[in-house]
Amino acid sequence: HDDLKEMLDSNKDSLKLEAMKRIVAMIARGKNASDLFPAVVKNVACKNIEDPNQLIRASALRVLSSIRVPIIVPIMMLAIKEAASDMSPYVRKTAAHAIPKLYSLDSDQKDQLIEVIEKLLADKTTLVAGSVVMAFEEVCPERIDLIHKNYRKLCNLLIDVEEWGQVVIINMLTRYARTQFLSPNQNESLLEESAEKAFYGSEEEDAKDAKAEVASLAKRKPYVMDPDHRLLLRNTKPLLQSRNAAVVMAVAQLYFHLAPKAEVGVIAKALVRLLRSHSEVQYVVLQNVATMSIKRRGMFEPYLKSFYIRSTDPTQIKILKLEVLTNLANETNISTILREFQTYIRSMDKDFVAATIQAIGRCATNIGKVRDTCLNGLVQLLSNRDELVVAESVVVIKKLLQMQPAQHSEIIKHMAKLTDNIQVPMARASILWLIGEYCEHVPKIAPDVLRKMAKSFTNEEDIVKLQVINLAAKLYLTNSKQV
């Protein structure tokens, strides 16, 4: 490393900068640079932190904070405090970056570091904002009190901060606002709960309580939004147009948690726009949409077609889109969605076909009026050539029949015939369970199935064996003469 030592000792800024860069690169690659320690510290500790060139001051601090040696913690602490009051915002930003590094090296410095964070949070430049909030989140996220006096400034700076800083600040402000402001939808969710109690409360008392509750809620003061809460919503809204998907996603989460129900809709359009980007981004967005669409179905309904599946989508994206479509299904759009599902079943992607069959089952469970249509569709799938399709259909039909068994002895008979050729253990087990559970509906067929299964018993998987024993016990209880 002699050449690097010479460069560090030279009088030229450019050589020193180059040497610092090389050392940071060496450390990043995991090489041992400890013998350069004196040369660097000499440079950093004395004149370089006072160097007229801001890039040298900053890179000196960067190198110093990259040296993971506990012995220099006091020097590092001094350098960070110096840099935090530097006139150059770039150096102050570097100081903010050094804070989490020092904290991870020696967590006993927390109190001193919090003082520096407090000082840097008061900084009015956009360059420092994102970095100091990141340091705050790493070192002392519980000290919400440090944010109070800087809250409005952070809201106003937000639009001009660099993208990754925006993500960090938005996430922190979401956390802040959820703990410091009233929920704009509080009254509404309480009303829903009370109405539910009034509807389900069978005992007179319950119903009276619930009605009284609804009445008292109606008397409550109408919700008025805190101006600071409004400021946050107003200043983050334009960022839904950001070219950075992470920023859009962060604003969407903020709106989901903090906006009044009537205003949340704006995020749907922005999230649907993100579905045009790479599959990795799509995956993250769809996971969030799947969660959001459970609670706020209405806002994604106008974009139903955006969640239709393309044959080029990777399997995990297809499966997430299915989940969203199933969440959005209601009495008005269910026929469109089921038609769409019918085309998916012909796909070559077997995992996806299985997920589609489960989705049909979920729609049938949630929307009573299409239950029979779905059941008939699934029964038709039982004659499919593909064993996996048949097996998945059997498992879903089993769930649907549990809701209304009496009308369906035909389906159960049809399924009993399948035991000869379906080999998938879960499907065999489901058929046997159905025959056992509803053996009164198929008194002629059930004993026959048991006889066949007894022959192949030793070769079956465990879940199938258990259901054979289960079937035998149920038949013995209901039809002991014949069995």
UniProtKB/TrEMBL annotation:
It holds the Pfam family Adaptin_N. SUPFAM superfamilies: ARM repeat (SSF48371). It is found in: Endomembrane system. One of its GO terms (biological process) is intracellular protein transport. GO terms for cellular component: endomembrane system; membrane coat. Its main location: membrane. Keywords: Membrane, Protein transport, Transport. Residues 48-481 form the Clathrin/coatomer adaptor adaptin-like N-terminal domain. GO terms for molecular function: clathrin binding. It is a peripheral membrane protein. InterPro entries: AP_beta, AP_complex_bsu_1_2_4, ARM-like, ARM-type_fold, Clathrin/coatomer_adapt-like_N. This is Adaptor related protein complex 3 subunit beta 2.
